[in-house]
Amino acid sequence: FRLRRRKRALAGVHAPSNPQKRRASPPSLTAGAMGERAETSLMVGLGLVAVVAVLQMLKPKSVNPCIKKESEKVVDIYALPDMEELKKSDGKVVFCRCWRSKSFPYCDGSHAAHNKCCGDNVGPLIIKASK
Questions:
Q1: GO annotations under biological process (predicted)?
Q2: What tens-digit pLDDT sequence spans the chain (131 residues)?
Q3: I need a labelling partner for 19 at 20 to 30 A (CA). Which of 34, 75, 119, 124 fits?
């Protein structure tokens, strides 16, 4: 009985079981293919929103939000006479600013991999000893 009623609804024929309760409903609001399409569209839309949200959460975030973004790599060099005891054989000390160095606070070059992965431009702080 339900199958016959559904076929009639899809065909646009409206035959209520009780003639006293005749309702005029537009064919677009009857149960059938239109309702199933709306349900499918809703599920596809929700699925796409979920996928986009997960991909945004998995994307690595940039450490450097706004400092010298036009540069490929941010490097600052300062000459400070008070830091003579910090100088190495080449006359400079390199400090990490990416927070990924295994020898933190000194730079070990970890920023290079981070920059490639995230599209960031973070670089070390280089302190040069005066001569």
A1: regulation of autophagy
A2: 566 666 666 665 555 555 555 555 555 545 555 567 788 888 999 999 999 999 888 888 777 766 788 989 888 776 766 566 666 567 788 889 888 888 888 899 999 998 898 888 999 998 887 66
A3: 34
- CB within 8 Å of 89: residues ≥ 6 apart: none
- Which entry of 73, 87, 92, 128 is annotated as an active-site residue? 73
- Is 116 within 8 Å of 128 (Cβ atoms)? no
Query: Which domains, and CATH codes, for the chain?
Result: 2-58 (no CATH), 76-128 (3.40.5.90)
